[in-house]
Design goal:
This protein is an alpha/beta fold. It has a single domain, classed as P-loop containing nucleotide triphosphate hydrolases (Rossmann fold). 34% of the residues lie in helices and 27% in strands. The strands form 2 sheets. It has a 6-stranded mixed beta sheet with strand order 6-7-8-3-9-10, with helices on both faces. A hairpin with a 2-residue loop joins strand 9 and strand 10. The two termini are 34 Å apart.
């Protein structure tokens, strides 16, 4: 569903990603783990088309999207929940979700979205800016899901969120995979969340992958050693 080959990404003359490669199947969830400044957000922005590739290739369901603009990648099946959530503060919850339906024939928010995130149904007429951080994160995921993506990218979804909401988000992501053929890729620093939702875990350091493991065979102490300063 997602194939990334030898990705090199630079800010000006400074290369940040040095040949990242991985593949993710339909209905598989991956976690990209690493400290701040190691390249996680740069990777996600390059997959989404926010940052151009210096070289390399990105494929979604067999389609090469490497040179596509962000909106073209959305049309071909990528959805992106950025770090910081980026909800529209003056729009209601329902209006925020409807922005994801801009190109859909039916502008009605699917009932399954509210079933995944019941708090959003309760607050559907409340302004996005008045929600808690955890509620805004659920809103941002809901807005991404209504585009019916093949690949869902979540950049630091647990950042600044209370533990009970983190569990709700993990539950929702696992529920999504039961009902859709979707690939989920998460950048994360919270190991227990990654272990709850990911089939495979990668560690990124200095713009390269330095460790890869299946969830069942994960040496948690080894991964924690990469995450500590």
């Amino acid at each position: 569903m997602l194939k990334v080959e030898n990705l090199h990404v630079a800010y000006g003359q400074s290369e940040v990603l040095h040949g990242i490669s991985f593949e993710a199947r339909a209905n598989e969830s991956l976690a990209i783990m690493g400290r701040n400044g190691m390249g996680k957000t740069t990777l996600f922005k390059s997959l989404m088309g926010v940052l151009p590739l210096k070289s390399g290739k990105v494929e979604v369901a067999g389609n090469d999207v490497s040179r596509d603009e962000s909106y073209q990648r959305v049309a071909k099946g990528i959805a992106y929940v950025p770090q910081g959530r980026m909800v529209f503060p003056t729009l209601t919850v329902q209006e925020n979700i409807e922005t994801g339906l801009e190109n859909a024939k039916d502008k009605t928010v699917p009932s399954e979205i509210y079933a995944l995130f019941p708090v959003l149904w309760d607050m559907r007429n409340r302004k996005g800016g008045n929600l808690s951080g955890g509620q805004q994160q659920q809103l941002a995921i809901a807005r991404a899901l209504v585009t019916n993506p093949k690949v869902l990218l979540l950049d630091e979804p647990t950042e600044g969120i209370q533990p009970s909401i983190i569990k709700d988000i993990a539950k929702a992501l696992n529920e999504i995979r039961k009902t859709r053929d979707i690939t989920i890729v998460i950048s994360e620093q919270v190991l227990h969340f990654a272990m709850d939702v990911a089939d495979r875990l990668f560690v990124i350091e200095g713009g390269v992958f330095v460790h890869e493991t299946q969830r069942a065979g994960t040496d948690e102490n080894r991964i924690k050693s990469y995450l500590t300063v």
